[in-house]
Amino acid sequence: MDSKVTVPAHSGLLDVATLRARCEFIASAHAEYRDRMRAALLAELKSAYQQGREQARELLFNDGSGLACAARLSWLQDQIITVLHDFALNHVFSAAMAPEAARITVTAVGGYGRGTLAPGSDIDLLFLLPARPQPWSEPAIEFMLYVLWDMGFKVGHATRSIEECITLSKSDMTIRTAILEARYLCGSHLLFDELAVRFEREIMRGTGPEFIAAKLAERDERHRKAGDTRYLVEPNVKEGKGGLRDLHTLFWIAKYYYRIRDPEDLIKLGVLSRHEYKLFQKADDFLWAVRCHLHFLTGKAEERLSFDVQSEIAACLGYQPHPGLSAVERFMKHYFLVAKDVGDLTRIFCAALEDQQAKEAPGFTAAISRFTRRSRKIAGTLDFVEDRGRITIANADVFKRDPVNLIRLFHIADINELEFHPDALKLVTRSLRLINNALRENDEANRLFLSILTSPRDPALILRRMNEAGVLGRFIPDFGKIVAMMQFNMYHHYTVDEHLIRSVGVLAAIDQGRETELHPLAGQIIPGIEDRVPLYVAVLLHDVAKGRPEDHSVAGARVARKLCQRFGLTPKQTELVVWLIEEHLVMSLVAQTRDLNDRKTIVDFADKVRSMERLKMLLVLTVCDIRAVGPGVWNGWKGQLLRTLYYETELLLSGGFSEVSRKERAKAGRERLYEALSDWSQKDRKAYSRLHYDPYLLTVSLEDQVRHAGFIRDADKAGQALATMVRTDSFHAITEITVLSPDHPRLLTVIAGACAAAGANIVDAQIFTTSDGRALDTILVNREFPNDADEMRRAANIGKMIEDVLSGRKRLPEVIANRTRGRKRSKTFTVPPAVTISNTLSNKFTVIEIECLDRPGLLSEVTAVLSDLSLDIASAHITTFGEKVIDTFYVNDLLGHKITNENRQGNIVARLKAVMAEEADEARDRMPPGMVAPLGAQSGTRE
């Protein structure tokens, strides 16, 4: 508990003497009219506070100190409350002459008790009542609270006697923590001092282990709820892992256990070195600066550093772009490095706590300590010992004597499946300077590292511990460059280093047979990969060159070539790693943006892959890459696309493609459909088996052909010119909507618009025309509900929307406008519109690919342009990477020819760019901040 707080100079923030004089004037001027007096007081206090707050904001921009800003705001609040308290007692309740023993005490608790406030923070107050409260005591408190509320403050408050505070502190750890930080503001100082003495004597004495265990358990649960990683790209500055609350937890524990008032006292106690204390201060100041700017910018107590404010805060803090990294990416990298520093401080602090407790209380609670049993030896090493399931150092010079031990520590922990003792990690953090070129080139160190990476246990866990301790980035400097690096987009959920480590975790899970249900093909083929070392190395390094001006795949392959030699890989292994990294995006992009029923797609992909070994490893790498992007990015539909590409390529690489002509295969397909309709009448079997052209028969499965035949026949019997059919697929996480309609050039435009209006995310479209002039289009949309019944109802509503638009019962512009109405302007992301036209990707079709910022109705507008240009769309492939969409269309002219005329191609590009330019200007009016439009599945791995 503190009775005072040191604050920086507050020149110009508030003239307290003038404010008091003005309040005295208000009291005398309105003495006969209490309501007028209160209204005038409220206006005066509000004006004084707003002026002081604005001054604090300007000073934050001038000196950049977050702690100074938080202290200024706290000091300003102190003055307002003190003046208000004195006014209430002197002029409202005539208690100015009351003896001190009869007075109340106003104390700041919580964060406010520490003497720091963010612009939007709650004001936490504890009103202490004397043993014999006066009749005016509680009315005075009520008067103060109502004025503060009317000023717009969020006030958390409690009114208690000292006895109540002590009693509640014994059973409620939240109240205990609040009182621990209590700070005197005004009123009876004797009352505050009595609480401080009794709290220390009756609550704190002898209960340090209990308090520490509770606070660390509370921290762990908070981390668990936040995703248990400090590397989320939209972190919570206050509650997230590595955020301010973690620093507060350290201070609470230090204050409670070591009885200190200033964190600097931890240096004298030997808990932190001076360097570590400065790190504590810098982290605290930086996080407070971010939090204060965040509150000022949003005008509220916003703690989540979302995409839509990151750029503005980066500008406020003065970050500038750098080749390969934007200003906002540089700011966020600094943020995550600070979060990592907070983790380092936590480990060092906990190690010191355990040392202290080992000396003083061997029976310390198991939640924080494990030294009730003596350390025991670990087979094969004299440098490390086991302490209750945790590896720790045998002596203090273990790393200095042999720097390879900095890697060996993690290897031994892995093979013995041990956790890490804070003592060991503290010494690792303090020994990082020993990781130099000699250690990096050491054969034994590299052999141990490769063993960790390819461990049959949990390599991702050990790699994460190495990364958090700073070892991984020092041992592999190229990896160190991407530590804490974020990518400013809505696709990637984690920093680059966290993404890579998670990728290794997915690979290990597949390798160990724990992911066969989710990834049946990867689980099936990985046992057939005899040498998996190149695969593990490629997975760890595939994004190691992110943040450089050049293509990260090419640069990453160059980095990998050097590292593979250092790791001791053979030339063959090295070439495989280099190829995998250079091509790690290709399989995902081909699977999701190309027509897999077009043989040219498979031929081109097979020419790039060239061997089954590469194909197998590239599939597994692609799966690991997408899975590690973030929750919800992977789904069964992506898996199905990858499996289709794999199987088709496998056939070609193994010489298994049929030599039978396309015409003969289509004829055989028609005969199979005829046979499958064996329970139909002869007339219907003939009619419906002859209804389709060759492309349909060659690309649609027999099961779906039979289902479609029944659907068309039912529509014919009912006399329906327009009909829809829906089917859910939970494994592939997609819902299929089949539309039967009279064919016309704008059919896909209307269907796409109706889906957008219904909020359906389209992932693919199969477009066919029947021999009697009807269209049979199958639209695949992302599944929204886990329950089939709910998803079927949603799909039926989408189908109904499509029917209403196609039949003219609803107008497409109106339904899209209704969906986008009221959405706010957002300038968070920009994607330069791009159009590519290729006649080499398909033997039969021209392939048009667009890339731009996603928004509602985009697909509808783009297909409308293609129809205006007299282009026939054979298939469409819709892929969204967060805020960016890549749509691919296989088209012909109306005579079935490719688009080869350069002038016509130029016109197509110009018209499409015009639509996307409108999107760039107008989509922001339709999108809420930080959100993308619903059209398009969050697909692919645009790494």
From TrEMBL:
The keyword Nucleotidyltransferase applies. Residues 921-943 are annotated as: Disordered. Residues 1-377 are annotated as: Uridylyltransferase. Gene3D superfamilies: 3.30.70.260, Beta Polymerase, domain 2, cca-adding enzyme, domain 2. One of its GO terms (molecular function) is [protein-PII] uridylyltransferase activity. Modifies, by uridylylation and deuridylylation, the PII regulatory proteins (GlnB and homologs), in response to the nitrogen status of the cell that GlnD senses through the glutamine level. Under low glutamine levels, catalyzes the conversion of the PII proteins and UTP to PII-UMP and PPi, while under higher glutamine levels, GlnD hydrolyzes PII-UMP to PII and UMP (deuridylylation). Thus, controls uridylylation state and activity of the PII proteins, and plays an important role in the regulation of nitrogen metabolism. This is Bifunctional uridylyltransferase/uridylyl-removing enzyme. It comes from Rhizobium subbaraonis. The gene is glnD.
